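Appendix B. Chain record.
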Amino acid sequence: MHEEFLRFTDNLASKFEALVGQTPATNGVLPASFRGSGVYLFSENGKRLYVGRTRDVRKRYGEHTRPSSGDKKAPFAFKLARHATGFITSNYRPGEMSRAGLMLNRVFALAFSESLERVRNMEFRFIEEVDPTRQCLLEIYVSVVCRTPYNDFNTT
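Structure tokens predicted for this chain:
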């Protein structure tokens, strides 16, 4: 493997262990130590569900959990609502199955609101990583090792 790439990956395992080994925030209030940029992990009843990365963890956590967050600011809640309603497949064409269309659907909008509340009540962990390349690699590493069901890295 190329030595430059190895330098980016040399601390992934230790960062992962620090992330999953910490006591999670569970009440919607982040500890003062959760500041800056890095990788975060949502879990529920000990099951690791979703990993993401951010430049501002406090802002991003609010976007994931605030009742006023929309579908574009709270992608995890949107995915949970998709699964709850059976609208699993993404559709990027305008219409009732698009993101905007689903948010106009009464049943889906209720599921999305309930999903925001569910996410707010989940266990939340965060590990600082300021380098954007390492951050990206750590997000993938955590997702693969934890087998987070709501991360798929698919593109269309």
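Further analysis of this model is presented in Appendix C.
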